[in-house]
Design a protein that fits this description.
With 278 residues, the chain is an alpha/beta fold. Helix content is 31%, strand content 24%. The chain has one domain: 3-Layer(aba) Sandwich (Rossmann fold). It is built from eight helices and nine strands. It has a five-stranded mixed β-barrel. Helix 1 crosses helix 3. The chain is globular, with a radius of gyration of 17 Å.
Length: 278
């Protein structure tokens, strides 16, 4: 097994999935920590446990189930990844983002990514939804870009543009969906770090200074790979905790999981509304 994911790795997983479904999904959905419950709403669902798929990165984190749920939501054919993997679990960036490649090869030309995130913006409170309008790829700037290694020409160019990582029309549709459902939303910049340790107060003040509104340990690598392949992306953060800029409170994984319970109904309404507008 080489360091980088190849077309062969991707297509073997695609073939294994195709053998078990008879629809062509249009929208890929990745559910973040504590947000997996949304997958239960998928109708006519085929369920594939991801450990059964060749070279699939297996999720080891509590709050991530590790299965694909393929079916319909609001009449749209969706492929839901319930349980993503993260760089801190030990996988390479190409491996972490392999599910996005597979989604695209299966037919998805749109991606909805969700995550649990800490609030850096002082106006945000736990339970808020943030529609992502841009990102800071701090891990990627440090060298861990998911496109490192041989370029997969079948998907896109060596040097992909990143001027609009989050589709502006999708952003508007998501905001309309929130307004119609009476859900308060924020709009802001997501910064991804490697984790798994949470941030120190000085790191959080630094992140505030460079323009981040919310911080997490995922999403950006998936979005870069999706954009490389030309998929249109909607990104949503569920704010699970306030960043601890002065070191006065603790941040725990339990807190993040707990916030998911408040966030899931809102996120479900947002995504359902968004899908009906596509
Ligand atoms: N920091 C990093 N990642 C996170 C946080 C946080 O505060 N909350 C949820 N994911």
């Amino acid at each position: 097994m080489g360091e980088f994911i190849t077309m062969r790795d991707i297509d073997q997983a695609v073939d294994a999935i195709r053998a078990r479904i008879d629809i062509v999904p249009e929208v890929g959905l990745i559910l973040g920590t504590g947000l997996g419950e949304l997958a239960e709403s998928v109708e006519n669902a085929a369920i594939i446990p991801t450990p059964q798929l060749p070279r699939w990165p297996i999720s080891t984190v509590e709050g991530h189930k590790g299965r694909l749920v393929i079916g319909e939501l609001e009449g749209v054919k969706v492929l839901v990844l319930q349980g993503r993997t993260h760089y801190y679990e030990g996988y390479g960036m190409g491996h972490v983002t392999m599910p996005v490649r597979v989604m695209q090869r299966l037919g998805c030309d749109k991606l909805v990514v969700t995550n649990a995130a800490g609030a850096i913006n002082p106006d945000y409170v736990p339970g808020d939804l943030m529609v992502i309008n841009d990102h800071l790829n701090l891990i990627g700037m440090g060298g861990a870009n998911p496109l490192k290694g041989p370029n997969l020409e079948e998907f896109g160019p060596r040097f992909p543009d990143m001027s609009q990582p989050y589709d502006r029309q999708f952003l508007k549709l998501a905001q309309q969906a929130c307004e119609e459902a009476g859900i308060k939303y924020q709009e802001g910049v997501y910064v991804s770090l490697a984790g798994p340790s949470f941030e120190s107060p000085a790191e959080l003040r630094f992140l505030l200074g460079i323009g981040a509104d919310a911080v997490g340990m995922s999403t950006v690598p998936e979005v870069i790979v999706a954009r490389h392949g030309g998929m249109r992306v909607l990104g949503i953060s569920g704010i699970s905790n306030k960043a601890n800029l002065d070191g006065s409170t603790l941040t725990t994984h339990e807190e993040v999981l707990e916030a998911g319970k408040v966030l899931v109904p809102k996120l479900t309404a947002l995504i359902r509304g968004f899908l009906t507008k596509l």
